[in-house]
Amino acid sequence: MTPVPIMINGLPGNVSKVIAAAAIDDPRFTVLPYSLTGPEIDINHCHIGSESIELARPGHRDEAMTAIKAEHGRFICVDFTHPSAVNSNAVFFCQQDLPFVMGTTGGDRQLLEQTVADSTTVAVIAPNMAKQIVGFQAMMAHAAEHFPGLFKGYRLTVRESHQAGKADTSGTAKAMVGYFNQLGVDFTVDRIEKERDPERQQNMWGVPANVLKGHGWHTYTLISPDDSVKFEFVHNINGRRIYCEGTMDAVLFLSRQMAANIRGKVFSMIDVLKKEP
Predict the structure, then answer these.
(1) What are the structural domains of the chain?
(2) Span of 92-101, 142-151, 166-175 with lowest mean pLDDT
(3) Which of 34, 109, 181, 256 is least surrounded by CB atoms within 10 angstroms?
(4) How confident is the model at residue 128 (pLDDT cuts 50, 70, 90)?
(5) 166 part of the active site
(6) Which candidate in 17, 131, 166, 218 is catalytic?
């Protein structure tokens, strides 16, 4: 198998660094020594092990990408940047005819899909790249479709805790609220309880100290109208390694779509799971 060339954007962000390190060690991929980064980054290179990745800020990304494409041809971009950059990054990738995997939450998700649909490229866009959680979401989606109103009248509490640097509410939690709505629960995303305080996370939630800077804990609690029944769904992730496997699968999936000459289409992680070899 010829290694798939990929460009990991968002360095020196924590998730991007973990994914870059995993991809560099994976013979299925060739990691380009370049990364698009934010305007606030004041370094020119990011070192991943023995590899030096050159960083390109927004003001220079057009000329940088022209040179990179001239040197390496077409490749797949992996994007784990800030939520505020989601839509502009997607526009840039589409203008450059670059397929991309986007694991960043936030932004206008409908506009994201439309941007790709109007382009000549293809993308995997998902708020969560952890395969097992995506599988859980697929089960919830199945239940929501086939058993609408199952939890009608139940009260829902949604609590999520992430590292202090996560700017937005969990995209996974938002998606889960949609499923619970279909199952008959009256709940809106603005009622999600979002925790970002490290002291509270450690002392009240029990998040281990060594993962306070990188975790994703979620609890969904359903209580019946008469308080006699309680259902609770929990998924707690410590660290960021779980996102690597799903991201790599998404890249390989996207590579197959490119080979089939698929254009102007957005895929989800559920699509990736269904069509894994």
Answers:
(1) 4-125+241-274 (3.40.50.720), 131-238 (3.30.360.10)
(2) 166-175
(3) 256
(4) confident
(5) yes
(6) 166
